[in-house]
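To illustrate the input format used throughout this study, we show a single complete record. The first block contains the structure-token representation of the backbone; no residue identities are included at this stage. The design step must infer an amino acid for every position from geometry alone.
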């Protein structure tokens, strides 16, 4: 499992686990396919922000 904090590890179409903004307290993981990458910087300490194909937005915690 790669780190979700580096942008170059995440590709459009990849299967990932993200934490949605409202789930940050519980740390609940939402699985989905990356539609687009929203973070412009090469790394982010809390995870790269992505939009999934179902429209949900969150930070990548796991890459499958």
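Output of the design step:
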């Amino acid at each position: 499992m790669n780190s979700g904090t580096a942008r170059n590890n995440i590709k459009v179409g990849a299967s990932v686990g993200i934490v949605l903004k409202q789930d940050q307290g519980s740390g609940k993981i939402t699985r989905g396919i990356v539609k687009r990458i929203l973070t412009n910087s090469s790394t982010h300490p809390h995870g790269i922000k992505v939009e999934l194909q179902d429209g949900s937005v969150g930070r990548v915690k796991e890459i499958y």
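Structural context for interpreting the output: The longest strand covers residues 30-37. The beta strands are 15-20, 30-37, 49-52, 57-63.
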